[in-house]
Amino acid sequence: MSELEDISELARRRGFFFPSNQAYGGTAGFYTYGPEGAALKRNVEDVWRDIYVREEDHMEVSAPTIMPEAVFEASGHLEGFDDMIVECADCGAAHRADHLVEDATDIEDAESYGPEEIGELIATHGIDCPSCGASLAGDPVEEFNLMFGTNIGPGSSAPGYLRPETAQGIFVEFPRLKEYARNQLPFGVAQIGRAYRNEISPRRALVRVREFTQAELEHFIDPETDDPPIERVEDVELPLYSTTAQNGDGGVERHAVGDALDAGIIGSEWVAYYLARSMAFYERIGIDMDRFRYRQHLAGERAHYAADCWDAETELGGDWIEVTGFAYRSDYDLSKHGDYSGEDFTIFRQYDEPVTVERATVDPEMSYLGPEFGGAAADVADALERLAGRDRSAFDGDAVTVDVDGDEYTVPVERTGFEITEQTESGEHVTPHVVEPSFGVGRLVYSVLVHARREDTVDGEERTYLELPPTLAPTAVAVFPLMSRDGLDDRAEAIAEDLRRAGLEVSYDESGNIGRRYRRQDEVGTPYCVTVDYDTLEDETVTIRERDSTDQTRVAIEELPEAIRRLLAGETLADIE
Amino acid sequence: MSELEDISELARRRGFFFPSNQAYGGTAGFYTYGPEGAALKRNVEDVWRDIYVREEDHMEVSAPTIMPEAVFEASGHLEGFDDMIVECADCGAAHRADHLVEDATDIEDAESYGPEEIGELIATHGIDCPSCGASLAGDPVEEFNLMFGTNIGPGSSAPGYLRPETAQGIFVEFPRLKEYARNQLPFGVAQIGRAYRNEISPRRALVRVREFTQAELEHFIDPETDDPPIERVEDVELPLYSTTAQNGDGGVERHAVGDALDAGIIGSEWVAYYLARSMAFYERIGIDMDRFRYRQHLAGERAHYAADCWDAETELGGDWIEVTGFAYRSDYDLSKHGDYSGEDFTIFRQYDEPVTVERATVDPEMSYLGPEFGGAAADVADALERLAGRDRSAFDGDAVTVDVDGDEYTVPVERTGFEITEQTESGEHVTPHVVEPSFGVGRLVYSVLVHARREDTVDGEERTYLELPPTLAPTAVAVFPLMSRDGLDDRAEAIAEDLRRAGLEVSYDESGNIGRRYRRQDEVGTPYCVTVDYDTLEDETVTIRERDSTDQTRVAIEELPEAIRRLLAGETLADIE
């Protein structure tokens, strides 16, 4: 079995994750987290929260997953959140057209091609339907919107969509959220929650699914005055796979943050700051940093508004998978929502000192414009006001001409009330820019599992274990009685209860021989097992066994909770002996 | 303002919750949790998890929110998850018909009436459209399915629905989940997640919303052999509002669990167990137990398969609101999924000792049935087999008659291979019964806030504060410098950082006068504020101020983390002085 098949098998058997609704034949792209997986996922989310909310001192919110259509008109998802689909004329199966081309050719970025080009490539390369084998040549390639649609309330008058990213639930509420930040930039708003993409061809377990969990941070900054505390991270080394390396035949290069900025490899200090901060996150959750890189977006991948974009990628079964996107999104999101909603998506930036500015204003004589231009008079007045703001020199002559809906209107300057006045202003309205690190939680959980799986031989027997960081493991400590009799079981249950009361995640197991019980815990990554045996009844000590080394030591029961706490904090068996 | 208006105003202003998408005119039935609310909600969920997962030692899973249609065919939601709707012929507004009747009449359970009856009541009572005032008499009352529908994948060939309860994600995966329980009953599976109901008329803030969070536990038991540990809770006093009291003119009566079972007030020991266990939960999250009751379902409210159902209700603004449903659901859910999917939703119950049973079997001569009955032969053989299992006396005579699709077929008994044999069986397949406590997390958060709000006068000034349990508050401790100068701010920031490192939720605030900063924290329920003043620089002590009493005491900085920890654990300012 391949590395990924191994993990899928282990995940299903031990309760990390499995395909949903198998009793009804399964539903592609949907996975259920079993008890071990749900706990591991929660632990990954807690580490994320610890770094991006607590340490960085940002807010965390929780917004609905269903949002009304207007939101996605503004965000651009309704128009542009598409993948290319080709439907087999023979069997009716739908396929992601660009993926078929990538699988059959050397092309790696088929997504950036147009539907017509993809259709031609399918024909040229004689690509067949993966379901039935019929030729797909000539079958139309079309855009398919990936949002799940629904209707809010009775009837179909209020279409809604499941959010394709958690971010929109933050952007839309910016007018309210800025109040909680007391109208001061910079501030960040985080959210961990479900997002949905109606993938044409879900695949690769937790990698390309239709319902997933994102952890996103939207950091709102003033582009002119806010800088990240880059000095705190400038020595952090980053494994960078730059556009230059990708376009040439270079590979990953390690650069300190400061050097990468100086050399222009990373274009934005803000993006660099989050790339650096995130290294600690990936390390804490147990990503193998030898199978990890930051890949810069190629020009064709990047959204037009994004100044610099990098993906964090993990290597899984030979492929590189995006687990995080880091983007400098400029004012794109807030400007769009401001334009579409007509509400105030800006922050008032106070000047250090009030400034005096010259303003050109008009006050048109409506008693002249009315009789002269009839129904167009009000529009002419508006056009004069806009013109004064834009080009005051237009009022230098005797008359001024404005355009209203394609018709020209000429007005004597003396009738416009044109004037230049001095005004004192205390500040100005600024649309904040957004720096966004966006994490796929399921892909992170999947990467952690794949990178943690180990095989070795213990006492001549092969075993599989997960080398998860101790604080990330679903169970911190498992407690076993050597036999489930002679009071060993009662004693072990009491010890398990004590450890639970000490705030630890504890598992109690008395079934099967002790070796089998160790293997079970090894496979779910439990870092420590405690065994209660006949000596325990004599001398009040128990055995602690360490997962990775399988080394054992004995400690007094009364010292056990403290011993486990020290082990979880990074000490070794030798330290606590 | 009413109690509920007060809370909605506070919630919006301080960031607990607010109506979503206001920039686009709002979307009824959807709320966003702001920073304070998201933290409070997470804390409520953590207490729930602590009790129903950790202490009760159940599994917790996380399933998708979108599920395929087959699931809801089996569960009955597709057919029966309806509310009654009446659409105004004049303005087109849709209303929940039974609610209009309840609002306009003395009827309290209009939901249990049929659409025709409701239509007649609307006409008789002359109920008008709440939106435009036109008469609704004669407008048809119809059933409206409350599930949000969507399509999975391209096209409309795979309809899916947003789950109306988290429970289905557990029931459907029973065949897999039982493996994690090593095929042994009893075991429980919990889930905290989003659920969706396309309410016709969302109302009352977080009470009747279209997207909400449920915390559900499905406890799978063997109805014949599994009993709850009722002895652990038999002395717990419950405020019970029984059907007898509701049908007469009785009120809430307090009964110990044991007495309520003996008196037959509570019909199921399992339900009684969870009613008792849940008392600790409501108390820990800060529900005012004088505004709390358990209300038994009236016969008309109860699903046909449910043996006994109780709701936990909180009093909010004069109304009683369901916050939890407790139901003994029998084998209804698993049987339905077993029938519809054809998969095994049973558990094998091992007998203590193998038993020998007599089995009637048949082995029909197909060489006789074939020529005799042609295409129906196989069905006749199957019918004979079923008949032997059901009624062996049918084979007492010379011939036996079976019915296949309405046609009768008579077969000589000697051709059926009928035989009575002795078989040794080690156990039997049992469809587990389900005990379900189902909590509405948003309603709990709302109840906690309403019950916690206090007003008093401090130093002649009115103040509002939230008397939240200290461990439930979004912020455990706020740190203020008296002035943001003279090094007080640096010192205060360092202290805040130390407290954060000690694992506490800390807020730092240096803006505005100290009184205003106290009020801000009072309004979000922060139990303790620490102030750094000029004395601090001299003697290394700070002031701790307690939210409810506004009492203050001074402690040494080096003892501060431990002092806060003791206060959060229930000690008083006097204890730590």
What does this structure look like?
The structure is a homodimer of 577-residue chains. The first copy, chain A, is an alpha+beta fold and 577 residues long. Chain A folds into 4 domains: 1-81 and 162-346 and 432-465, BirA Bifunctional Protein, domain 2, CATH 3.30.930.10; 82-145, 2-Layer Sandwich (Herpes Virus-1), CATH 3.30.40; 348-430, no CATH class; 475-576, Anticodon-binding domain (Rossmann fold), CATH 3.40.50.800. Chain A is built from 20 helices and 28 strands. In chain A, the strands form 8 sheets. The first copy, chain A, has a 9-stranded mixed sheet with strand order 3-10-11-21-16-15-14-12-13, with helices on both faces. In chain A, strands 25-24-26-27-28 form a 5-stranded mixed sheet, with helices on both faces. In chain A, β5 (82-87) and β6 form a beta hairpin. In chain A, α2 (35-55) packs antiparallel against α11, α2 (35-55) crosses α15 and α13 (366-373) packs across α14 (377-390). Chain A is elongated, with a radius of gyration of 31 Å. The model of chain A has no long low-confidence stretch (mean pLDDT 94). Chains A and B meet through α1, β2, α2, β3 and β4 of A and β2, α2, β3, β4 and β8 of B.
Give the CA-based shape of chain A. Answer: elongated
Overall average residue pLDDT of chain A: 94
Largest interface: A-B, 78 and 78 residues
* Radius of gyration over C-alpha positions of chain A, nearest whole angstrom: 31 Å
Oligomer: homodimer
Our estimate of the beta-strand percent of chain A is 25-35%
Instruction: Specify the CATH homologous superfamily of the largest domain in chain A.
Output: Bira Bifunctional Protein, Domain 2
CATH uppermost class of the largest domain in chain A:
Alpha Beta
The fold-level CATH name of the largest domain in chain A is BirA Bifunctional Protein, domain 2
- Count of folded domains of chain A: 4
Head-to-tail CA distance between termini of chain A:
40 Å
Q: In which order are the strands of the major sheet of chain A placed?
A: 3-10-11-21-16-15-14-12-13
